[in-house]
Each structure stands twice: as structure tokens, then as C-alpha cells.
């Protein structure tokens, strides 16, 4: 796998791709360069048959500090006061977050340190998240006169409305333990077992049929905003097509015959 200075890529033999934010000096901010790297990395992971699961991790004391405010402030020097540049960055960021959701491979955030503003959005956009018990989360835009409107999109789709609004309206820091309680992350674990815990989960998922995982992930996000009857109609049609797939035949046969399945990922 190719690796840049600010985003490391490591693919192991079991098909687990670790993407590691590595712009430590800027607290792994979502700069224009980082957004471009992440967007390309998730597009490539989705298309690479060797990749079965993606783990998004970070080096340094911060998981991700959100947008690079110095970079964005520099954009104000344009004749339009930065409007076009801000629109570009917001579009790039939205593209990355949707790219994570639309990636056919499950994505697990492995969170150490702080994840603030768009960094919190990044965690919320992942399918699963495991956090160090020393990690923390916040959407602190209200402290600087900038409501975290784009982080709100991912946050409000992962935690109950009142929990999301409390984070957004106060900007207060949320501990990893509390983040697990409200559903922002799956588990908060001791720092010394964070990577092992994340990789154990990733290996468990990677052992499944990638066709089945892609089918399920796509259906999960598609049905959420449908009415109950539409969701059942849609999910039923997905189930029918899934039942006709080769791996479903193999998996059911293996279960009946009390043996391990041999996935063809088809």
C-alpha cells in the first residue's frame, strides 16, 4: 500500500487496512491535504478486493482536532472573504464522511486522545468505534461563534437527539465512558489494549463474506430514513437477492453440515 507523510496505509494478510492519521504537528487536523488523502484512501479501499475491513487510527495525542482553522482563516484573504474556499472545504469534508458510509468495507475508528468538531464527526461517520478510556470528544464550535453544523449531521445519526443537542449547544467535553453510554462509540477500553481490542473486532468481521458485509452495510444505511413499510419492502428485496448469492448458499450449507464455510465473496 502507498503511504503519504500525513496518512499511513498498512494492509495485513487478513485483509485489514489500517489508515493512520499522521499529521501530528497539526493534531491530525482535516486540512485540505488530509481530506484529499482520506477521500482517495476510502475510494481505493472500497475498490480493492484485498481489503476486507478498514481501521482508522491516529498517531500523536489527538485523534483529530477537526478542520485546520489556520488554513481556513488564511482563506479569508480572497476577494469574497473566503466564501468559495469555505464551500470547497465543506464539500470535501462531506465527501469524505459520505465516502466512509458508502465504502462497502466496514470501517472501525480506533480513537486515542481528543476528537473534536469535524474530528468527532469523523468518528461518528465510521460504522464502529473503539476508544481508549482516556479519549474525549466534543463539538466545541459554540465557543468560537461557529455552530458545528456539519458534525451535527453525523452526530445526530448516531446518538439520541437530546445527547447530540447537549454536545452541540454546550461544546462540553464528553469522556470516552460517556461516549460509549450514548452510542457515539461501541466500547471504551484501557489504552494498553485499545489496538488489540480493535484488531480482534476487525479480524472477526474480516472472517465473514465480504459480499455479505457489503450487502448489509449498504442496506443498513439505505433503510434508516425510510418509513417502516418502505424499509421492510426494501429489506425484504435485499434479503431475497442475498439468498440467491453463492456465499449464502455456501453459508447455509456449511451450517447444516456443521462445517466452516468457504467464502467466495460472491
Automatic annotation (TrEMBL):
It comes from the Bacteria. Gene3D superfamilies: 2-enoyl-CoA Hydratase, Chain A, domain 1, Lyase 2-enoyl-coa Hydratase, Chain A, domain 2. InterPro entries: ClpP/crotonase-like_dom_sf, Enoyl-CoA_hydra/iso, Enoyl-CoA_hydra_C, Mitochondrial_ECH-domain. The lineage of its organism: Bacteria, Pseudomonadati, Pseudomonadota, Alphaproteobacteria, Rhodobacterales. NCBIfam families: PRK08139.1 (NF006008). One of its GO terms (molecular function) is enoyl-CoA hydratase activity. Pfam families: ECH_1. This is Enoyl-CoA hydratase domain-containing protein 3, mitochondrial. Belongs to the enoyl-CoA hydratase/isomerase family. PANTHER family: ENOYL-COA HYDRATASE DOMAIN-CONTAINING PROTEIN 3, MITOCHONDRIAL, PTHR43602. May play a role in fatty acid biosynthesis and insulin sensitivity. Keywords: Fatty acid metabolism, Lipid metabolism, Lyase, Transit peptide.
Amino acid at each position: 500500500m502507498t503511504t503519504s507523510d500525513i496518512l499511513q496505509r498498512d494492509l495485513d494478510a487478513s485483509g485489514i487496512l489500517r489508515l493512520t492519521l499522521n499529521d501530528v504537528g497539526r493534531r491530525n487536523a482535516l486540512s485540505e491535504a488530509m481530506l484529499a488523502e482520506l477521500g482517495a484512501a476510502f475510494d481505493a479501499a472500497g475498490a480493492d478486493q484485498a481489503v476486507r475491513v478498514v481501521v482508522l487510527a491516529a498517531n500523536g495525542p489527538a485523534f483529530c482536532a477537526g478542520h485546520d482553522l489556520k488554513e481556513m482563516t488564511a482563506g479569508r484573504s480572497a476577494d469574497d472573504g473566503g466564501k468559495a474556499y469555505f464551500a470547497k472545504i465543506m464539500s470535501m469534508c462531506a465527501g469524505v464522511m459520505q465516502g466512509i458510509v458508502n465504502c462497502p468495507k466496514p470501517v472501525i475508528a480506533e480513537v486515542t486522545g481528543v476528537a473534536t468538531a469535524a474530528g468527532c464527526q469523523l468518528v461518528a461517520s465510521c460504522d464502529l468505534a473503539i476508544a481508549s478510556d482516556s479519549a474525549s470528544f466534543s463539538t466545541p464550535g459554540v465557543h468560537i461563534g461557529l455552530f458545528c453544523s456539519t458534525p451535527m449531521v453525523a452526530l445526530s445519526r448516531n446518538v439520541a437527539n437530546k445527547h447530540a443537542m447537549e454536545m452541540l449547544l454546550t461544546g462540553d467535553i464528553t469522556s470516552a465512558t460517556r461516549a460509549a453510554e450514548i452510542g457515539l462509540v461501541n466500547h471504551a477500553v484501557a489504552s494498553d489494549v485499545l489496538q488489540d481490542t480493535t484488531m480482534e473486532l476487525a479480524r472477526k468481521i474480516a472472517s465473514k463474506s465480504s459480499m455479505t458485509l457489503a450487502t448489509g452495510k449498504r442496506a443498513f444505511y439505505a433503510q434508516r430514513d425510510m418509513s417502516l413499510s418502505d424499509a421492510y419492502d426494501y429489506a425484504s428485496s435485499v434479503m431475497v437477492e442475498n439468498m440467491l448469492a453463492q456465499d449464502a448458499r455456501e453459508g447455509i450449507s456449511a451450517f447444516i453440515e456443521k462445517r466452516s464455510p468457504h467464502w467466495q465473496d460472491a
